[in-house]
Amino acid sequence: MKIQIKKQLSGTEGEFLLDIDISIKEGSFITIFGKSGAGKTTILRAIAGLVDVEGFIQVKNTVWLDSSKGINLPPQKRKVGFVFQDYALFPNMTVEENIKFAMDREDKPFLEHLLEMTELSGIRNRKPDSLSGGQKQRVALARAVARKPDVLLLDEPLSALDIDMRRKLQEELIRFYKEFNLTTIMVSHDFSEIFRLSEKVFVLENGKIIKSGTPDEVFIQERISGKFRFSGEIIQIKQDETVYIVSVLVGNTVVRVIADPDEIKNLKTGDKVVVVSKAFNPFILKV
Q: 5, 183, 205, 273: least surrounded by Cβ within 10 Å?
């Protein structure tokens, strides 16, 4: 998959040029990471044909966009599955009808398989307003895959869910990705999610890719090496006499690390961090 696009955008600090030139291996799972307003969602929307850009997009052997030749396939002709942060379900349709709507032609066995994979069989006749957030996102995921897309686009799909539901749906994303060999492009700010799901990360800043590589290469290896490492979020910093105890939420587990005053100077509750061991002593590195 080849993406070469340009578009003038407006951010909090004024106008900037989104200028992307990347290649993505077919069947890989990649993440676009960066601050809000950097252009991440615009990239997904450009791939889907939902926003006008200049440049070139090729998926497999099909050119979806070549502005120099006047080629610009409409969204309905691009084989894309898109999962939005706000679900974007049809409120007047049932769970089953939402999924069937995305199919090019009726495929009952495939529909049943999707309902079973997402644990939606028992609520297939319910409408979105009666579903939980996790159930809605399952419907959105099943609907996206129902198109049998060449590319699956995920725009922070799990950010509105609690930690337990995020972990469960991450497992479902992994199952979908492996079973259907889907080239998957995700926008995410969640480090644990990125490390768990992604093979490669592109870091976007002011419309430009400033770094790319595996999650380890991008977030850890260039800064520190160690015997073990895992990412999480600081949920508490508590002083205990002359040291501090830092509680880090890693998935569903809270890990507590003893830190000295110098280590916690630049840390606060809510920071995304990596816990690394060095000479058998764990310490915290802010990402």
A: 205
